[in-house]
Write a structure and sequence with these properties.
The protein is of the alpha+beta class and 249 residues long. It has a domain of 85 residues: YebC, transcriptional regulation domain (Alpha-Beta Plaits), CATH 3.30.70.980. The protein contains nine helices and ten strands. The strands form three sheets. It has a four-stranded antiparallel beta sheet. It has a four-stranded antiparallel beta sheet with strand order 5-6-4-7. It is globular and about 50 Å long. The two termini are 23 Å apart.
Length: 249
């Protein structure tokens, strides 16, 4: 299993426990604004906006905040011009990295992201240098109680690509176009969703252990803590024990 998939779920649960609401809200507001600007303010016809609204509600963002962010995106309210930027490169251990950011100052953000890469022995590359190693997918983690066989029968006709039982959950992988349909089926059947998101899944992985793994996780943490960074995708594979230990620090 992808270490980053595991790390994503660990971070998702930890964020809910730690409630770093200020930082989470800032990222969500920027995503709402960009989604509305790019695809319009109607979530029925704008899938990206629909997903952003769902995530905002999961994090208990007040409706007024969601509405204002959307209206800034559509131009109904004034606000900063937020630009979406994607960075690609290699982190410590030669792990391929894709970083998506939302910023009101591209030059500043680029310099700061480059500094983080350099600090940990990584290097920013050109557009397209690693993105070909990743495939866009939908991932949904659900509670394990339902059982893999019953779950398969429930969603098999919705275009699910893979179902895998893990230690404490079941992971469903879908094509991007089938992601919403699978989520709706799960909701209608009262299946508890732990996390659901659109992501980029690596086609191959770089295994890290010991000091190399610890250095990489510090690098990953610093990237994800940057206020302009929205998402980080990486093709690392690290033992679960190290991921859990790092998430508790």
């Amino acid at each position: 299993m992808s270490g980053h998939s595991k790390w994503s779920k660990v971070k998702h649960i930890k964020e809910k426990q730690d409630a770093k609401k200020g930082q989470i809200f800032t990222k969500l507001i920027r995503e709402l604004t960009i989604a509305a600007r790019e695809g319009g303010g109607d979530p029925e016809t704008n899938a990206r906006l629909r997903h952003a609204i769902e995530l905002a509600r999961e994090n208990n963002m007040p409706y007024e905040n969601i509405e204002r962010a959307i209206k800034r995106g559509t131009g109904e309210l004034p606000g900063q011009v937020i630009e979406e930027v994607t960075y690609e490169g290699y982190g410590p251990g030669s792990v391929a990295i894709i970083v998506t950011a939302a910023t009101d100052n591209k030059n500043r953000t680029t310099a700061e992201i480059r500094h983080i890469f350099t600090k940990f022995g990584g290097k920013l590359g050109t557009t397209g240098c690693v993105s070909y190693m990743f495939s866009p997918k939908g991932v949904i983690y659900v509670e394990k109680d339902i059982g893999e066989e019953k779950l398969f029968e429930m969603v098999v006709d919705a275009g699910v690509e893979d179902i895998k039982t893990e230690d404490d959950s079941i992971l469903i992988t879908t094509d991007v176009k089938n992601f919403d349909a699978v989520k709706e089926i799960l909701k209608k059947n009262n299946v508890k969703i732990i996390e659901a998101k659109l992501t980029k899944i690596p086609q191959n992985y770089v295994h890290l252990e010991g000091e190399k793994a610890q250095t990489f996780l510090k690098f990953l943490d610093e990237l994800e803590e940057h206020p302009d960074v929205q998402d980080v995708y990486a093709n690392f594979d690290i033992p679960d024990s190290l991921l859990m230990e790092a998430s508790n620090n």
